[in-house]
Amino acid sequence: MRKRHKRLFEENPADDESPINLTPLIDVVFIVLIAFMLIAPLLDTDSITLAPSKGAHQTGSPQNHPISITLRADNTLWFQGKQISLDALEKTLLSAKAKSPTTTPQIIPDAHVHFETYQKVKNAIEASGFETLDVVLRP
Question: What is the pLDDT of residue 62?
């Protein structure tokens, strides 16, 4: 009979679990991290300038006050508190732009106004030469 000798450093694959190789996972995580680091400075972020608090004094001439256009639920247009038609609105906006080119029109839409009415007013503002527009939403 043959005698079996046990070796001191013998590997027994049945007893040990093979280790999980984490190198590919770490490589992927580093590549994603580097991608975010490269892309983050290129992203365009929007900023909103908040209105001054009630305690702050507003300086400026009355000509710099925004033009108020209210859209009501029945799809009527109101320019500076007076009812106006869409055709007359564009003519009025053209004269307002000529008088004070730095003013900003404000649209104050009702929650139930048709989008078509809003779009027509927006198009009239753009056709009048205004570059910016404020949409005032009520809470």
Answer: 45
> pLDDT tens, 50-87?
566 555 444 444 445 778 899 998 988 999 889 999 88
User: Residue 28, class by beta-carbon neighbours within 10 Å (0-12 exposed, 13-18 middle, 19+ buried)?
Assistant: exposed
Return the C-alpha torsion angle 66, 51, 70, 137, nearest 10. 160
Decide if 66 contacts 134 (C-beta within 8 A): yes
Calpha distance 108→134 (Å, rounded):
9
Report domain extents, the chain: 65-135
CA–CA gap between residue 31 and residue 24 (Å, rounded): 11
Strand arrangement, sheet containing 77-79: 82-84, 77-79, 67-71, 105-109, 134-135
This prediction has a pTM of: 0.53
Is CATH 1.10.1740.10 the classification given to domain 65-135? no
